[in-house]
Each structure stands twice: as structure tokens, then as C-alpha cells.
Write a structure and sequence with these properties.
By secondary structure, this protein is mainly α. Helices cover 62% and strands 0% of the residues. The protein is built from 4 helices and no strands. The chain is elongated and about 45 Å long. The N and C termini lie far apart (47 Å).
Amino acid sequence: MPELLRFLRFATAGLLNTLTDVGLYTVGSAWLDASGAGTHAWLALLSGGSAMVQSFLLQRGWVFRSEARPLRFLLVSGTALLAGAVATASLADVLAPPAARLGGAALTALVDWWGYRRWVFAAEDEGATGPRRGEPGAARRPGRGAAGFSVPSAGRGERPGCRRGR
């Protein structure tokens, strides 16, 4: 997939994630009549965490169409979420809650793009330029079953345990 198309998909998924994040944050802020940086930081973590689950599903299945490394995804997204929450708490004293959360979300998006592209969904072979899973021309890696486990090769047209000519 061309890099520009992948970035546009990332931006579209990010827009959906941001709408989820900012929407939940705004509703929570109004419902709790939130004041104080601590409350804003917790609200940002909760709304951002919800958007993070949505993001994982969109990034894995639509944007990068690649097997995700869930632990790496959690590390990158958690770091980005924490950075965004700190930025939101810092901006909450000078901006309205939705604007403060948008500022935090912008920082989150920058950290996410870099981390997803370079580490979470990066091709296993750094020099790989072939199609990713789900794209035309993509095939499973040789020797891997549907679940990703190694499968012994029996040779062309043979089943394991069977000999030719018998």
C-alpha cells in the first residue's frame, strides 16, 4: 500500500479515535463538573484508554493490515496516552476542556504514528517491501499455519507421515 494512502487511513482512524476520546472526555468533564489538573488527567486517561482499544482494532485490521505486536502496541500507546494526559492537564487551566483534550490528542497522535510505523507494525524483515497481510499478492509466510505456529513441510503434494508410491 502506498505510504500516502496508509497515512490517510491512519489520519481517518485517528479522527474516529479522537472523536471517541474527546467526546467521552467532554461528557465526563461536564458530568463530574471536573476541576483540578488531577481530575482532568484521570478523565483523559479513561477517555484515551477507550480510544486506544478502538485504535488497536483499526490500526491492525485496516491501516497497517499487519499482525500487531500487542505488547509493543500497549507500550507505544500507553506512552502516547500518558504524554497526552499530561499535556491535557497542563492546558486545562487555560483552555476549555474539549480544546485542552484536542491539544493532548495532537501530541498523542504524533507519538502513535512514529511508534506504530517504526516499531509496532514494522515488517519483520527491515528490508521487506512486499504486500502486507490482507493486500493483493500477500501470502502466509512459508512454514506457518493459520494460527502462526510452525508446521513441518512434507514436500510438494505429500501429507506428513505418507510416503509416495504406497
